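QUALITY CONTROL LOG
STEP: pairwise intake check
CHECKER ROLE: data steward
CRITERIA: each record must contain a sequence immediately followed by its structure tokens, with no blank fields

ENTRY 1 OF 2
RESULT FIELD BELOW
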Amino acid sequence: MNATPEWIVRSVSRLRAPAPPSDNKSSPKASDVPRSTHERLQATLRRGNEALSPRALRRVLADLQEVVAPQVSEIEGGRRAQVVADWYAQAEPEERRDMWLLMCEQFAPDATRFKSARQRYEAAAGTAEEAQAEVSLRRALVSPRTRLLQRFAVFPQGMRFLVDLRAELLPQLKADKRLLALDAELEHLFSTWFDVAFLQLRRLSWDSPASLLEKLIKYEAVHDIKSWADLKNRLDSDRRCYGFFHPRLPDEPLIFVEVALLDKMSASITPLLDEAAAPVDITRATTAIFYSISNTQTGLRGVSFGDSLIKHVVETLAAEFPRLRTYATLSPIPGLRAWLGKHAGAMLERLDDKRRAELGRAVGTEPPQAAHLLAALDKPLELAPKSPLRQMLMECAAYYLARELPEGKPADPVARFHLGNGARVERLNWAADPSPKGLKQSYGLMVNYLYDPKRIDKHRSLLAQGKVPVSGDIDGLIRD
């Protein structure tokens, strides 16, 4: 018999009941275990920690069931969903959570139907009936919850409602695993609804509506926009800003990228954010620097837009500026300081005796220990160009970006994004971000990731093999 396909295995995990509580003495008392919605709907009184009474819970369930009633049209279902959304807007956080639990537990797939369909599919594997059995199995996996969420997407503000609902839901998942099914369903639907084929790439400029410009200020996640003058500088003649938009959220950029047009690869964020700097002559620009990429919708976590955005922006820029030859980023390294705080000792062990002694003299203690190194690096901007400490920090940063691959993926979140999109680690830049945030995250270091359209697939293939694509300069810093 053929092995069960991966998509079935993933789906089965959603249907499995949670493991029963342990019988050991540390198990919570029965009165402390949250009641399921099935139990609460059959009850008369609520417990002290339950938001909605059984009667109110039954009323909300009835309203949700009316949304997906078989005889109700899509339009009427959307209208009824809007009524529920209006109630939700006025509800307290714990009351909203009760509605999530109803959506999880009362609108799950029929486990009996699924089991039967799966058995038929496995029995039909390799026969002429396999295709029809797969169709039946897929239909058995479509939960009433899917149809319910689809009805919420029908009314004009329905998509906004669902995205905001998931943003509110995400922080609660760790504490209450019962909510995982609703989150998985939303993420799956969003991956379809927000596919790049349905998104629009739009340029944002100083002439864009003020309401849209205000959202750029609000959502900028890499380098805070401090004023309207700061924003105007980022939208000047030698800059470009592009965002992806969805037709159902026409005034909300889902993700946006800020680009500087230059004559060389940038080594510091300071001149790019300098409001007094004169604009570059864009007719001579040869390099496009992506210096900020911001996702704006927490509720769309897990839905990837970035790789498609960069590809579309590169194509758009190439058409407008044929002289452009280099496409690169100037990116933060947000995880560097925290990582080095845990791995300084291991990095010291990589040094030979000569360099360890040299570093010991620089920190004032031989042999140097992790605590000595970290204390000496605390004020990186004061380190001289030829300081052994400065060299050590650059080596640690190169190692972090190029060799740290927990579970086969780059440890740094920004590196994970760009390397996953086919870039390579090109160059480390000292004191590139001297802001308090830059010093706190990465000792002021920034990195250029290079996007070479001809080598993107090659770089992705290397990463899949557990090898981070790097330039010769980065490779030389690591000293394997």
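ENTRY 2 OF 2
RESULT FIELD BELOW
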Amino acid sequence: MGLVDSCVRAWTSFCNAAGRRTPAVLLLLAGVMVPGLARAEVSEVRLARQYGISHLAMAIMDELQLVQKHAEQAGLGKVTVTWNRFSDGPGMNEALLSNNLDVANGGLTALLVLWDKSRGAYVGLSALSSMPAVLMTRDPAIKSVADFKDTDRIALVSRVSMQAIILRMLAADALGKDQATRLDRLTVAMPHADAFAALQSGKTEITAHFTAAPYYQQEEAAGLHRVLGSYGVLGGPATYSVAWTSKAFIDRNPKTARAILDAMEEATSIIKGDPRRAAELYIKADNSTLKPELVEAMIRDPENVFTTTPQNVMKFANFMADTGTLKSRASDWKEIFTPLIANRPGS
């Protein structure tokens, strides 16, 4: 028993014997000085989501206010949820580090970089989807990564994006392990929508775009050429979109963290159980001009797996450690994600 606790108990006993009430200020003092006593969880949660079908669960959570629903069911009362939109992982990591964001959502590699730099202070909260990254081009002569010339430029969202790391994997596979970064000099950081417009116009230096759904489907429909997808080098479905946060946020707000996880699970269930409804919710949440039939087809595509279980995470973690992008090496995917999902059959 701590000193403050002992004093409170002694004073309370004295007041009870004397028929008096314990002064509220003393109880308040105890709550401040004794860790964990009468500490409330956050009343506002600041969430982020990126653009694209891979982040569909977050769009549904936003549109249906699922975090608020599960927070109230957990006895947390009315919780305010603020959503922020980002086009890349580094921007979200900056927002997390500056305490302007509680939970980020983006590509797995952005989580891995922050997990590494923070020495494990930031971890994955959940996976959201496993999808292929697809390399598109307007030059039909490009049939593999070995065909890129010095004059080509490949658009991708950032130098630590999923596409950037997969491009290195492809270069290592096709050109040799010592050539993993050979194509880095050809890459240009650009949001997916801008890259699509640049590639389609043919009036810029951009000759290729490494992207994901729904952008590569739109580019195929526009007559652009698909070079390859990522599942070949990854050996099957691999986690593409994840949500991550700090261990401190989870420790201080265990019920809130669980409510967010429950909201992700419900959103994932909607995607799997009612793809048409999920497509309509995505279109509404993103104010998209895509046809519901097209979005539904993307959701039903067997290559696109909507799951909260991490898949093939170690493929990325090991490659990034081998090539020096990460300084720390995880022995298991569970080191990178919160123990709240450690019971899942991840990889």
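INTAKE CHECK: passed for both entries
DESCRIPTIVE NOTE, ENTRY 2: Strands lie at 44-49, 80-85, 104-107, 122-130, 134-137, 154-156, 187-189, 208-211, 225-229, 239-246.
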